[in-house]
């Protein structure tokens, strides 16, 4: 029997399983970010002792970009910033005639054409201030960056990475709102607000949800602005619809939890493959790719076999390694729990059988990659890479939630430590 239906509709809990509106709020004890402001700090100096701009900055295109963007904040009479603006504009324009990397060339082109100061307001992690405004969620922005680099490391996907990292970070917060903090009444209101997708819905939300809701809408609005330059802003509607489907699935799981309902494995997987987030994230991952067409997005949202397989793999691997922690903090039943109850099975046997489904999902992914007939391979690679990241991060434990172990080593190796010029 197929684990997932091709229908986009989601099952609801039985009518006699009424949510308990007197539920006492549970607060998960996630450990804070281990990175602090490591990746957010910058202490650069652009002047020499004589107060002139350093000649060496000409060779530092990244430094010139920072100075150019800073000069956009100048006032009347600010001669130093006027000088900085003229200097960096001239040198950055010259730099485009050199052999810059595609990534750096793209940044320079975009900055000269549309400086950050004069463009749409951008969503940054500091603006959201996760640790203060959402102390009950996982603060994992750095880990999310690592995840996105695993989806596409290639320089030409700079815009795609920028879009995906913001959606992943926001989705992680929303996931914890549904799993770890919100009452059922609050979650019903929030779900309805997402379905309306209208900033006027803010007035109906609890205070802690308002910032979350506005940030989500801002991210998608900014993405529309980015794609408008390519005449593709209407592409975003496909990702919005996938986000709405995800939120509805989150609510279904919350209803199960608040009514102490254990679904069948089939019922569970119908919802939980959606809450794995991989169908939504795959659609979002295509938005910033230059070759994306509407046909590709229609394919991605039609439940193709490879995305369904990646979603199954993601959900089961997450469930298997996270079951102990989820039981401790109070969480909706997992595929392990559902299998044990439905088949009167031991936990060990349930995990063994679910591992078989993970291997089966990998075989489906492999088959689809060998026969890329509906969309080009470059799009299938995003699905494959999302699946790969699950295997890297959820092989032995949930290294996203428990990010102090192997995840920390991976991030340091990729984003912190310098790569040696020679390998002896």
Automatic annotation (TrEMBL):
Please give the Gene Ontology molecular function terms for this protein.
magnesium ion binding; terpene synthase activity
InterPro entries annotated for this entry? Isoprenoid_synthase_dom_sf, Terpene_cyclase-like_1_C, Terpene_cyclase_plant_C1, Terpene_synth_N, Terpene_synthase-like, Terpene_synthase_metal-bd, Terpenoid_cyclase/PrenylTrfase
Q: Which SUPFAM superfamilies match?
A: Terpenoid cyclases/Protein prenyltransferases, Terpenoid synthases
Among Pfam families, the record links this protein to: Terpene_synth, Terpene_synth_C
Q: Name one GO biological process term.
A: diterpenoid biosynthetic process
Co-factor requirement: Mg(2+)
Q: Which residues form the Terpene synthase N-terminal domain?
A: 45-110
Supply the Gene3D superfamilies for this chain.
Answer: Farnesyl Diphosphate Synthase (1.10.600.10)
Keyword list (alphabetical) reads: Lyase, Magnesium, Metal-binding
Q: Where is the Terpene synthase metal-binding domain?
A: 126-364
Name the PANTHER family for this protein.
(-)-GERMACRENE D SYNTHASE (PTHR31225:SF221), OS04G0344100 PROTEIN-RELATED (PTHR31225)
The identity of this protein, by name, is Uncharacterized protein
* Record organism: Vigna mungo (Black gram)
